[in-house]
Amino acid sequence: MLDQELEVAAKLTREAGRILLGIYATDFGVDFKGASDPVTEADRRANEFLVRGLRERFPGDGIVAEESDHDGDAARAQRCWFVDPLDGTKEFIAKNGEFSIMVGLAIGGRATLGVVYQPVGDKLYRGVVGAAAAELVIGDSRRPLRVSEQAEPAALRLVVSRSHRPSHTDALVARLGIGSERASGSVGLKVGLIAEREADLYVHMSGRSSKWDACAPEAILHAAGGRFTDLRGDAIDYRDPQLENARGLLACNAAAFAGVLPVVRELAAGAGF
């Protein structure tokens, strides 16, 4: 099931990774799409490469990519690819290695296939929902991905953004009694840590993310046995023409989800979600 799509997506992300690393090694310039939304030549070149490659291999599919104009493919296409050519641009600029390329495929509005590739370290997460195909590939080695079974909220390992500490984090930690916290760049890499049992929980209590930030990580986490929803616990509909994740994101291992969700809902409501 979707073997060809998975192999093509993995191959394209690795090749796009070489584009990123070529620019990463230079003294590249930085532009801004918004006050705190940087973009580089690497974002644009990888975006162009990935979109072209997907259009050549799957001409009937829709494509929504961060650095492309959006023409309604998300709402119109039964199969739609969501592409983030450089997730973690701030980390790319800081040259700390914590950035990734994310390519996800939604079918019927649900995240179904995902690839997240970290060029620094040659680390690739990949998964297909319902196909028992979640795995981590590093170089020539590979191993299956499966989330932890930790259900006790106080024992959960929280992963948070490295570029800024969200205001909700202290309240979340206090309410759940969490004692372990880890910072990482890139949504894809944070969720990857949950899939490989290095973390258990990630909460993005902000409307400042988009469908291309969510599709690939969601598919991988579901394939690894985890849960990925908005802050109300509802599934994300990738057919929605609104591309922003206005209700935030919650990624968690399945065992702890029922205990975490009411706390997240309450905090999200207090924050205006």
Largest sheet: 7 strands, mixed
The count of β-strands is 14
What is the H-and-E element order? HEEHEHEHEEEEEEHEHEHEEH
How do the strands line up in the largest sheet?
3-4-5-6-7-8-9
Roughly how many Å apart are the termini? Answer: 37 Å
Multimerization status: single chain
Proportion of beta-strand residues? 25-35%
CATH architecture tag of the largest domain: 2-Layer Sandwich
Fill in the keyword field for this structure.
alpha+beta; globular; D-Maltodextrin-Binding Protein, domain 2; 273 residues; 2 domains; 8 helices
Question: Care to describe what's here?
Answer:
It is a single chain. The chain is α+β, with helices and mostly antiparallel strands. It folds into two domains: 142 residues, Fructose-1,6-Bisphosphatase, subunit A, domain 1 (Fructose-1,6-Bisphosphatase, Chain A, domain 1), CATH 3.30.540.10; 118 residues, 3-Layer(aba) Sandwich (D-Maltodextrin-Binding Protein, domain 2), CATH 3.40.190. It is 35% helix and 28% strand. Strands 3-4-5-6-7-8-9 form a seven-stranded mixed sheet, sandwiched between helices. α1 runs antiparallel to α2 and α5 packs across α8. The radius of gyration is 17 Å and the shape is globular.
